[in-house]
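Hey,
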Amino acid sequence: MTVPTRLALTTVNLDTPDPAALARFYARLLGWDIEVEEADDVILRGPDGGVGLSFQRERAYARPTWPAEPGRQQMMMHLEIGVEDLVAALDHALACGATLAEFQPQDDVRVCLDPDGHPFCLWLTG
């Protein structure tokens, strides 16, 4: 398939009722810096560049349910975070303010929830 022009994925946006608070959680979790901070939009970028994370205020935010349940707000996406030490990464995530999801579908992955309920997976890269 040929793309008519260069397209570059630059940022993944997460809806949140409090962009600054959620951005600070992910900045601590990932060791990233806040690049832009405005009242309704905060952007993080990793030290090596690449795809960033943006946190945008959603006044009608509904916390997602994990795992999905009929009739309840479902997650629309989740982040995959590769780690070398699953136990150490989970301890760090919990210290940052994440919670361990009750349902864990795989032995080499830990599903966590950020403070707003967005699921993210810590998975062994090696």
